[in-house]
Amino acid sequence: MKYKQILLRLSGAFFLLGIITSASGQTPIWTKFEKQFQSAKTYENPVYNLQRFHVRFESPSGRVKIINGFWDGDKTWKVRFSPDETGSWVYQSFCSDTLNTGLHHIEGTFECSEPNSTLAIYSKGHIVHPKGSYYLSHADGTPFFYTACTAWNGTLKSTAEEWSMYLDDRVKNHYNVIQFAATQWRGGDKNSEGQVAFEGSGRIKINPSYFKHLDKKIDEINKRGLVAAPVLLWALPVSTGRELSPGYYLPDQEAALLANYMVARYGANHVIWILGGDGKYTDENEQRWKNIGRSVFGGEHPGVVSLHSQGKSWIGKEYANEEWLDIIGYQTGHDNGANTANWITKGPVATDWMKLPPKVFINMEPCYEDISPAIKDKQVRNASYWSLFSTPVAGIAYGANGIWPWIRPGEEILNHRKPAFLRPWFESIKLPGSIQIGLLSDFIEKYNWWNLKPAPELNLSQVTRPEEFVSIVRSDGHRLVMAYVPVKTVLRLANSGGIKYSGSWFDPSNGESRIANVLYKKGTIEITSPSETDFILILQKN
């Protein structure tokens, strides 16, 4: 069957969710209000020539928000804003060139109406990090379990038809975040129209046409109720192609300028910013990234912020007091050896989180399914559940070696070694692990997961083999206990309070559940897992 026929057949099985429109011309709450301005002057390089262009928005209750505008080509400037309060909003523009009558001191109003969609991002609001918590939530306080699929090149390479098919499949399989590269980078040197986001290094030139292409891809993400997670500055400092990645070679000022441009352009979308991708953010690079983070996100800003680190790189201690950073992201590499298992379950992530100010801890890149013959769905489950239960439960990401580079039949990955085999992206979204991470999300959402924190002290029968490590989390008061059991095991758990539980097993490979036989002894519980493969034990207080 030809590639286009496959696309048509697969995309026909899906449907579009929740298109946000407003017949009355009003802007529904949590959606995008856009205002266009026409400059009275032409600037040689607008992002340098105009030091400041922003719009002051005042809510019906009198709250004030300052939103940066952005250049959109020629003499066109725009501001995008997502209102968080219904009623009449008043706005006024400010420009550092006060003689520019097209940009300075333009006033207006708009009406914000009640939501017109039942999708969570439009009915419950933007994603935030509640102060003092270890998880993300919607603006109304509803906890948000981060379940991301990694499509670094998806926004660059995909056709509109491909992108729709992919996003519809991710919705169907319970994902709610899409991770992607927002500019050219090591793995994607241009978009499908041959465009790059910017040119230059010491002094850059923004390309609005590139970002107009990206606008459509991000809007399609949000249209389905998914959250966009763009990597603003890919930053891998080693290996072939690093010279393509802005986070690696741009000076601090230019890196911050580029990131600020994208924050202004996409801040009205539903976003989780990944400031840097695959970077080294400690040692000689630590102050650079702190400077960039403070410059871009030091004040009030839309969206929560994360960093995506190199494999087995931990930035928790160094960035613990950076208030702009909400998510301590990490990745655990692409092998399934003992060192990797130990790093996830016994390494700095598992031992440091409780010593740090509350932040969100997420493995943003466990092993990619299919990256080698040894990495299949079982290895993806191992890395994902171990990671999920190594810190307070917050979320997980998934990757497949054919999805992130957006591989089509006959293509290879730019600036990467040739793997033993390489499936196209539309086959990779059907891989077992791809579906099983969706099952993970659906499973965990049935419980008050945001109350779960690691409880290794409960395990009285911990094994020494890394691949058999049992990870345990519990809620306060031990009302809910979960354990990830990678192989057939006889579990002995501390139960000094003599709590009586209802027990069940969840099969992460197929989503099925079964009753668990709980044997009570003095001060302990004994339970035998049901088979040789991995299971999750759930104990709920009667």
From TrEMBL:
The keyword Signal applies. Residues 28-93 form the DUF5060 domain. Residues 1-25 form the signal peptide. Residues 132-451 form the Apiosidase-like catalytic domain. The keyword Oxidoreductase does not apply. InterPro entries: Apiosidase-like_cat_dom, DUF5060, Ig-like_fold. Keywords: Signal. This is DUF4038 domain-containing protein. Gene3D superfamilies: Glycosidases (3.20.20.80), Immunoglobulins (2.60.40.10).
